[in-house]
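Lesson 9: reading folded outputs for more than one chain in a single document. The general rule is that every protein is listed as its sequence immediately followed by its structure tokens, and records are never interleaved. Here is the first one.
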Amino acid sequence: MLETAALNDGELAEYCRRKGLFAEQIATWRAACMAANARTTQQTRSQQAQSKEEKKRIRQLEKDLQRKEKALAEAAALLILRKISAGDLGGQRGRLINVPDRLSVRHRQRVAV
């Protein structure tokens, strides 16, 4: 097909005689090549559209996953803080505690967050 693409009618007839072909065969082959290329272009466009939709869906799912991970981390931190402050020293809130115990609780709260 590439050899005959630039030939005019006279040159094409000469080429066909040399190769033992008919001009109609070459025209048929050329039409088949053009049709195959057209289908490939349509498939490429549909694949690009599908790929774009998939990328959009992936971005949405990743965003949703990040939001849920943040919510889970916040819930875990709140649970840990609730355990620490609910009576970590064995008594009720508001009672006086000594400095080392207070520093110990403060340190555990920082580590939990």
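And here is the second record, again sequence then tokens.
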Amino acid sequence: MRGALAEPPAMNENFDAVLNGVNAALTTGSVSVPNTFTNGTTADADQVNANFTALETGVNTALANRATDCAGAGGTWDPGTSTCTAASNYNCFVAGFCAQAAIDYPPASYAYPNVYEGHTQGTEPALGAGCNSSPGSLLWIDGETLLFSFPPFIIYPFCPLCPPLCQ
């Protein structure tokens, strides 16, 4: 059975729609199709196939770049699920400081907000941010020890940096 003839403007619109989607996914240049079809002319199969080949190459390029694009944005690529986990804005240094401050200066007793209360290097969200392995673990430890490294902490019976940092 022979299929119906496609209208050239409809074919062009279909290629344009796919191109727009592929180009939105690409980060390295854009894709174009080599052939445009005109009303009243027959679309040559080689030209139609060349357009599909250009689209296929664009899609494959976009798929191949996903891992690189994810890593470039600071994310973590999971090839098993083909997903990118966004970069964390969790700061291991601040978390180490504030988690230790919550122990030594309990927020309830010293009346300041501390969103890091109860956080440890080995639990989420610190674990997911890499605070349990280098260099994140070193940042966490530096944050913990900062609490007692400056003379103001010896003089003051409270944590003056806690309210601005830990909320």
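What the second record shows: The mean pLDDT is 76.
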